[in-house]
Sequence to fold (368 residues):
Amino acid sequence: MDLVPSPDPAGIPGPTWVFSFLLLFTQTVHAAFMNFTLGGSWFLVWLHVGRQTEWKGRLYDLCMGVLPIAISMTLTFGVAPLLFVQVLYGRFFYTANVLMGWFWLSILSLLVLSFYGVYVLKALAADGESEWLSNSWGRIALHLLIAMGFSSIAFLLTANAALSQSPAIWEEAYLGSTIATILGKVSFFWPRYLHNLVGSLVVAGVWIVWIANLGGRETAEKGGRSGAALAVGASLPQMAIGVWYLFALPESVLNGLFDLKSLASTHLVSGVVVSMILFFNLSLLLVLPTHRKLRWGAAVLAAAVLMAMTTTSEGIRRLLLQDYLSEPKIVPQSGPLPIFMVLLVLGGLFLAWILRLIWNAREPKTMG
Fold:
């Protein structure tokens, strides 16, 4: 029984490589913000426990100021990758949506509850007379619910990706097997989810090093060190999970990754090498948390790792679907695609300008 839908007869409005590039670019930008949203929400649980300490309280306030912006950017830059996935892999993506049913639709509810939970915390912080504000355990519980909400969204998105890239198990779903049973057949599902979850702590640690630099010398030193410690500490299990994820992939995918000829294998190797350099850089930040060049090095290296891993993930997707993919019909459209490209560039420049204004307004001039 062939359950894979036929390619869209309407075709796609431009060359495949254009949409592949846009998918990788927008997914990388989305991941940069998403990792702080996910990993930062867990860091704030720990930070809230000790926020009576002056530097922790200052760092907590700074992180809570950044978190809503990061969530908004995660959502904004998350739309484009989904659109490009639909263009290139729509017949797999939509089938996975249908198989997940209400679980897929629940993402919106989880997102709304988690997002507004952050604003509830900010409102409570502004209300000095609030009973909730004096109830530390209540605030910790709300922080935990927010972090669990974002983690659940990551779980469901990973489940969708795993299902969309495993057409061989779709028949079981149509025969009545539960989603839990079907996902149990996907050998790489759990390591992939943990790789996303633990990896977010590494990137969030880099964010925190930068955010701490906005809070004065003590916050920059102690807060920056806590961010570096989070990133270094998460890097160690992340390496082990990465090996688990790699060898949980089907043999045909492993052969494609290890032939050192495909783009995916090249980016996998480069990603591992850059990750090692990032780990060394973060280890130095544990000693010199306010060092400007080390901060910039961590940011650039983390961005390079995200780009390499995003490209590797796309290569893995194509290897998993290699028996089902075919060259799509191309029906060029001279209007929408150029307009999108122009708006993408202008939007990126505008965002960079806004972030520069924010940074120049808040960065302490005395920090090295």
Observations:
- The longest helix spans residues 54-100.
- Residues 188-321 form a domain with the Four Helix Bundle (Hemerythrin (Met), subunit A) fold (CATH 1.20.120).
- The CA atoms of residues 27 and 81 lie 5 Å apart.
- The chain has two domains: 36-186, 188-321.
